[in-house]
Amino acid sequence: MNDPSPTGSNLSIKFSNITSEDVLRLSVPVMVSFIINIIINSITCPLTVLLNVLVIMAVKRRPTLQSYANILLACLAATDVVSGLLVQPSFILHMFLKLLEVDDEDVEDVVVDIHDSALRGLLVCSSLHLMLVTYERIIAIKYTLNYFVIMTKKKLKIAVAVCWLLPIFSELFKDITGDSLFSNVLVALTLVSCVLFISISYLLLYRETRRHHKKMKTEQLPREEVERFTKEKKALKTSVFVVGAVLLCFFPSIVLLSLVFHFSLDVVVKSNLYVILLPFVRTSGMSNSFLNPLIYCLRHKEIRKFVFRFSTVQQVHPTH
User: Where, subcellularly, is it found (predicted)?
Assistant: First the structure.
């Protein structure tokens, strides 16, 4: 486990950087910050699990939703389920331990280790899934004729398996060796690669969609081709919304990391504002798992109907 103290050389923003001394130094503001974040996560945590499970069930049970694009979104929803089951609960428990001033360091270390390991693993897994979602859109729009040659069920299963096995292996390696360098390097490389890949990919996709639009205006294309392009463009917009939500939720983390690199870790950690804002930064990042299923429902009418079918049934058949 990395050195959790504020003076450690590790530049990763870990919730364990908030020590008992920080809580005592700013007892009222920090306690208020913890309580607000406990309330937010306690509300969104069960909803995150429920909504993402319903999205997965919708894709699995509705044949019309079983396109490769939707299957990959369902796989991304699976990572969000794990976030709601592990990352958020461990975060809530750690804040409770701080509020109650529990002095058992062994218990706190276990909770922090579970939270940090799950968060690191899911950062890698989710980033790889986002790259897969983007890659599928490139093949669908730019290489339409070879789509079903390049994208097959077997290749899809292998790619998704790698997305899960790589972070699991990384965390197991860290636990066995006690060295988290490989795990931290993997997270950094994956995040940088994800940002670069998605940025370049969407530039290419933007140019390709513009080309298709011009072609549709100047040429009399078959109706089937126009309908197919419209469908693929809608799926592309969904992936854009998903990526945009990720950037929005992790923007506070980027700002905090920028402050760390600009003013040095010691200066930022010792500042009062850091201790208060860090829980909100973490909550903002984790809220992405709650927003994703809402985006799927917004973009897919059939998923929306499936997810909210229980409320519809209750309205039609009210309980007596």
Answer: Cell membrane
